[in-house]
Design brief:
Catalyzes the reversible cleavage of pseudouridine 5'-phosphate (PsiMP) to ribose 5-phosphate and uracil. Functions biologically in the cleavage direction, as part of a pseudouridine degradation pathway. The protein is α/β, with parallel strands linked by helices and 308 residues long. The protein has helices at residues 12-20, 30-33, 40-54, 75-83, 95-100, 109-119, 136-139, 144-151, 167-176, 208-220, 241-257, 265-276, 280-307; strands at 8-10, 24-27, 58-65, 68-71, 88-90, 105-107, 123-125, 155-158, 181-184, 203-205, 227-230. Bound molecules: pseudouridine-5'-monophosphate and manganese (II) ion. Residues 141, 143, 265 line the site of manganese (II) ion.
Length: 308
């Protein structure tokens, strides 16, 4: 029986970055296909890649295209993925099946972490992670992103967790999984569209170099699992929790009424919140993803310095 080798196809600039010790930042693709509408999704994907390059790092957007696992997409691949219909949403459970059947799919935080580890990439930037959904005590809807953070050694930069989730329960599950949750530059755990929340973050760091050192220290200790860096949205771009609370409540009750479950829940909520805020949620989302990409590039750079 032949076992396929080298399951990840690295983009040429990712290969060059590895050879030259240039920092690399992994990016997910579910945010493109299921998190934002076309054509803004494509603009954002390009902008985020440009932000990372402007920091002297190389972006590696992950996806499965016609059965091939890619770390780093060409401009053309990004363009077709952003407007493709019926792209699968791939988490840990789905990557191998998609590859085996020659399918095309976008990677969630969990899947992107897995591919980043395979590709030898330490740092990954996204918007928000999946978490424990409201009502999880009956639905059991807890994102595989949380268990991935507990087992795959990648540092993930996100803007905290959305208020579509039960954020206290999300923090509890992360704590159980031994995941360091580190707020960047503040004490509170950021609330995605708002910089501050009423919840204290378990840990705080103010410098990318410290985050890099903690990442490397975990490897030295032989600890599996990643770090979650909670980077607050720039205050000029935030939306207040009071503005969003009724919108989230409406979107959540519509999801319940329509019987949305499983993988469909997060995309449904994001789309409804986009509609109900008349696009304001998207403007904030774009600003925070770009902010996360810049911090991730700084962390990747510091990891490279500390290693060399
Ligand atoms: N949260 C966001 N924006 C997103 C997602 C989550 O604020 O785009 C996407 C990410 O790809 C994340 C996935 O990994 O949704 C989580 O989906 P689920 O809740 O089905 O695990
Ligand atoms: Mn879920």
């Amino acid at each position: 029986m032949t076992v396929p080798t080298a399951p990840v196809t690295l983009a040429p600039d990712v290969i060059a970055a590895k050879a030259n010790n240039t920092p690399i930042v992994a990016l997910e693709s579910t945010i493109i296909t299921h998190g934002m509408p076309f054509p803004q999704n494509l603009d954002v994907a390009r902008q985020v890649e440009a932000d990372i390059r402007a920091k002297g790092a190389v972006p590696a957007t992950m996806a499965v295209l016609d059965g091939t696992l890619h770390a780093g997409l060409t401009g053309h691949q990004l363009e077709s993925l952003a407007q493709a219909k019926n792209v699968a949403k791939l988490s840990r459970a789905d990557i191998a099946a998609c590859m085996a059947t020659g399918g095309t799919g976008a990677t969630t935080v969990a899947a992107t972490m897995i591919i980043a580890r395979l590709a030898g990439i330490d740092v990954f930037a996204t918007g928000g992670i999946g978490g424990v959904h409201k009502g999880a005590e009956t639905s059991f809807d807890i994102s595989a992103d949380l268990t991935e953070l507990a087992q795959t050694a990648v540092t993930v930069v996100a803007a905290g967790a959305k208020a579509i989730l039960d954020v206290p329960k999300t923090l509890e599950v992360l704590e159980t999984g031994g995941v360091p949750v580190i707020a960047y530059g503040q004490d509170s755990f950021p609330a995605f569209w708002s910089a501050q929340s009423a919840l204290a973050a378990p840990l705080r760091m103010d410098r990318a170099a410290d985050i890099a050192r903690a990442h490397l220290m975990r490897a030295e200790l032989g600890l599996p699992g990643g770090q979650l860096i909670a980077n607050p949205i720039p205050t000029s771009d935030e939306i207040s929790a009071e503005t969003l609370a009724p919108v989230i409540a409406q979107a959540t009750s519509e999801a319940d009424a329509q019987g949305i479950t499983g993988k469909g829940v997060t995309p449904f909520l994001l789309q409804r919140i986009f509609e109900l805020t008349e696009g304001r949620s998207l403007t904030a989302n774009i600003a925070l993803v770009r902010n996360n990409a810049r911090l991730a590039a700084d962390i990747a750079h510091e990891i490279n310095i500390a290693r060399s």
